[in-house]
Amino acid sequence: MLLEGQNCSITLDEILDNTNNAIIAVDPQGMIIYANRAVFNILKIPVSTIIGQPITSHFPETGLMRVFETGIAELGQRLSLNETILLSNRTPIYVHGELVGAVAVFQDITILQNFLDSLVIEHEKTKQLQRTLEVVLNTAYDGLIVVNKQGIVTMTNQAFSSFFDQNPEDLVGKPITEVYDNPKFTEVLETGEPVHGYIHDLNGHEIIASRVPILQDGKIVGALGKVVFKDVNELYALTKKIDSLRSELDYYKKTVSENNSSALELLHGRNRIMGSLIQTTLRVAKSGSTVLLRGESGTGKELFALLLHAQSSRSEGPFIKVNCAAIPENLLESEMFGYDEGAFTGARKGGKIGKFELANGGTLFLDEIGDMEMSMQAKLLRVIQEREVERLGSNKSHKVDFRLVAATNRDLEGMIRDKQFREDLYYRLNVVTLTIPPLRERIDDIGILIRTFIKKFNLQFAQSVTGISDEAKEILKKHRWPGNIRELENIIERAFNMVDGTEIELKHLPSYLQIIASHDTRPYVEGSLETILNEVEKDALVIALKNSNGNKVQAAKSLGLSRAGLYKKLIKHQLHKM
């Protein structure tokens, strides 16, 4: 923009670099493509170093990426960064009708207030600053008015003048007492004391306002009145929302704390093998080496992966988990490598960042690595060797730096012999191997694990279960635990859905565990396999009916049978009259 009546050769970059507002522009992928010099004042790092990086790495709360979802501007977002409160406006960038980027303007509100005061005092000296101030006034508050020492209106914005169905120029130059009755904020001209957040009637509108003196050389030269909320109900709504968010934050803080504590309790215990494994894990975490976690399903391999991440030098970076067995083969490559826009039919507009890039600076956890297809294994090996990835549909490589942790319950050595797993990848993964024992080999930890899950589900179910009966605990100790810790957690959660007191009892456990208890108190059933199975089936039906107080619908549900299926089995065992 040029000053009127002057010839000027100043470039746009020079103008933007000399503004007090920090300006950042991103592409549709959220990568920073422009930042002016004022960004340094916020981040305290050279601006050139952030070009090409994700906006969320430096402004995680900006909400700038929402612009790509809505396609419309968002004004007046407040956010905190480096102990500074910023005011952010976010605007989409359209070229020939296509959304090609977005720009955010950040403003330090504290500095803005000082800026406003100085502009009011010096507004006669420069019309250029006056125009800048008008833009700020019309976007920063729900209403703002400035008077001089004599109470004459020297400046106001559209938001304030709209309370009187007028324009700002209609109010400027008038005594404030002619604008509206009882202009309470003018008291500051006499007292010099600011007042914030008072309720005031402004031409029939109940508002929340603030009043502050304007000082020059220690003397009061004017006063500034600000409408903070143009309707007191907005404050009530905001207060309610803040209370709700505070409660939610407290809940999540407590939940995270409880979950972290629970996770450590799940890993620690009396078992010597487990204790030694934990100590080894803590040492390995510091090294940054690739780790292969081995063990049966449900033994807690992900907990060890999280422990490796939390105790490493990358703990402040991302922890990205990929379940190689849960993602279809035809989607795994695009999930891992990401893709550019138009890379294939159905590709999302703007493309997508892959898991390798998302894990940059942190830990990549590849669960169920033994289920990865051979073709993908070769591509994974190349990433591990070269530490760079190339998105689908792109010819540009991206450097990646992550710590790799893999997990499997498969026999990788056997798979290598059967040509189902690459031997070279195996040796890349098998730098440090941690083998997690199954629950049946750490039965001495059953009591600790039960207490941990009771604590977790008391919080989740808002109950006050104090423990488990000796009878139920003994049955759990006799179980072989094919599902390991995950099975135990599911059993305790199921019990919380059944318990009607403060103690988990045998009747709250699944039928297959109750059958174990029934056979502990009766002679061994002899006969053919068919006879034994019939006896076990009959016991399961009797227990289910007993636990449901004869309610056959509930009994069928607990056994995973339809109502007709239950009746068929009841007739078979002559129990239909129970």
Describe the structure concisely.
43% of the residues lie in helices and 20% in strands. It has 24 helices and 21 strands.
Portion in helices: 40-55%
Largest sheet: 5 strands, antiparallel
Number of strands: 21
The chain-level mean pLDDT equals 80
> Order of strands across the widest beta sheet?
2-1-5-4-3
Radius of gyration computed on alpha carbons: 34 Å
Pfam families: AAA_lid_14, HTH_8, PAS, Sigma54_activat
Domain Sigma-54 factor interaction: 267-497
Keywords: ATP-binding, DNA-binding, Nucleotide-binding, Transcription, Transcription regulation
InterPro entries: AAA+_ATPase (IPR003593), AAA_lid_NorR (IPR058031), Homeodomain-like_sf (IPR009057), HTH_Fis (IPR002197), P-loop_NTPase (IPR027417), PAS (IPR000014), PAS-like_dom_sf (IPR035965), PAS_fold (IPR013767)
Structural features:
single chain; alpha/beta; 578 residues; 5-stranded antiparallel sheet
Structure description:
The chain has 24 helices and 21 strands. The chain has 578 residues and is of the alpha/beta class. Strands 2-1-5-4-3 form a five-stranded antiparallel sheet. Strands 7-6-10-9-8 form a five-stranded antiparallel sheet. Strands 12-15-18-11-19 form a five-stranded parallel sheet.
